[in-house]
Amino acid sequence: MSKKNQYIFIYATFPSKKTVLSVTEKLIEKKLVVCANIREHDAIYSWNKRVYEEKEYGVFFKTREDKWKKTKALILKKHPYETPVILKLRIRDYNPGFKKWMDDSLDDKQLKFKK
Amino acid sequence: MSKKNQYIFIYATFPSKKTVLSVTEKLIEKKLVVCANIREHDAIYSWNKRVYEEKEYGVFFKTREDKWKKTKALILKKHPYETPVILKLRIRDYNPGFKKWMDDSLDDKQLKFKK
Amino acid sequence: MSKKNQYIFIYATFPSKKTVLSVTEKLIEKKLVVCANIREHDAIYSWNKRVYEEKEYGVFFKTREDKWKKTKALILKKHPYETPVILKLRIRDYNPGFKKWMDDSLDDKQLKFKK
Questions:
Q1: Neighbours of chain C (3+ CB pairs under 8 A)
Q2: Mean pLDDT across chain B, nearest whole number?
Q3: Which residues span the membrane (chains A, B, C) (predicted)?
């Protein structure tokens, strides 16, 4: 299957709602992702030999495989963490309407967002 | 691996808790899925050249690969959105009790739900 | 790809925040996982011919493929449910910092957690 027929989740975590919104809007404007599902969670993690617990935001971005590299690069550039978490999961199948929505949104060369 | 030994998440989004409950109960009654994990999230998405933000519900259904097509069809039929999102993710491994729970629930021909 | 270069999500559900915290701390101390993202959800499921709905906690643990078996075994041992749900999802790609964080945390033989 070519990259044009593969769709992915990109899972990333952020320290605040403000950062999530700013990164997500940039990604949608640049037609790198089509949709983000965002929810708060508790993160418990090991870092420099200590265990931390804090609130953060986990986001599932939906996009197509050929947008992975540029999406990862833009999140890395905008992200306030020293070590962000940007992970790709493969979507194995989907309804036809989902594919059309992704392709229409990602490939429209005339697309200019109205504010 | 045959479809009978593969288990999947089906991820779908819904506009209200009421819709989630009604679709989930139907899917469980028809032995198409065994379990649903449901939480509210914020969705930001591109649609017809505008960016929208709204509350919705994201659901991870757990089932077996051979139930994918019928589950997708039933969600599509019951779903209020013009373009629903119904995505399949493959579960790569699991504990033995999970497999037994899935198979017992999906294959029991005598199963009649008590109200 | 060897198991040393594959990273995974382990998704598991728990009845209470207390159980999640106790299991997660044990897994991090034993260097079986590096991070857990935890949120409450509603679970609807079929069990012994009845449909149940209850609050529970869903956790995405992040770790490396070679830690899967021991992590699964430890969760099974500590888990209060008769049939826990412990599922492996494959992470298909990631940012380089994520890999370094995982490997540094999982492989440090001198690691002793400060309380």
A1: A, B
A2: 93
A3: none
Residue spans of chain B under pLDDT 50: 115
Q: Please say whether the structural domain A3-107 has been given the CATH code 3.30.70.120.
A: yes
| Tens digit of each residue's pLDDT (9 = 90 or more) over C17-34 | 999 999 999 999 999 999
pLDDT of A71-105, one tens digit each? Answer: 999 999 999 998 999 999 999 999 999 999 999 99
Chain A residue numbers with beta carbons less than 8 Å from the beta carbon of C92 are: 8, 88-90
Task: Say yes or no for a CB contact (<8 Å) between B113 and C85.
Answer: no
Please check whether residue A41 is in contact with residue B41, taking contact to mean a CB–CB distance below 8 angstroms.
no
pLDDT band at A110 (very low <50, low <70, confident <90, very high): low
CB A31 within 8 A of CB A106: yes
Output the six-digit token pair for A102: 């992704």
Q: What are phi and psi of C30, to 5 degrees?
A: -85, 5
End-to-end CA distance of chain A: 36
What is the per-residue DSSP string for C45-64? EEETTEEEEEEEEEEEEEEE
User: What does the angle CA C73 – CA C75 – CA C80 come to, to the nearest 5 degrees?
Assistant: 125
Angle at C31 between CA C28 and CA C36, to 5 degrees: 35
Which residues, listed in sequence order, are joined to residue A35 by a DSSP beta bridge? Answer: A62, B45
Are residues B51 and A112 in contact, defined by beta-carbon separation less than 8 angstroms?
Answer: no
Q: How far apart are CA C112 and CA C115, in angstroms?
A: 9
Where in chain A are the domains?
3-107
pLDDT digits (tens, 9 = 90+) for A30-70: 999 999 999 999 999 998 888 999 999 999 999 999 999 99
A-chain residue closest to C40, CA distance: A41
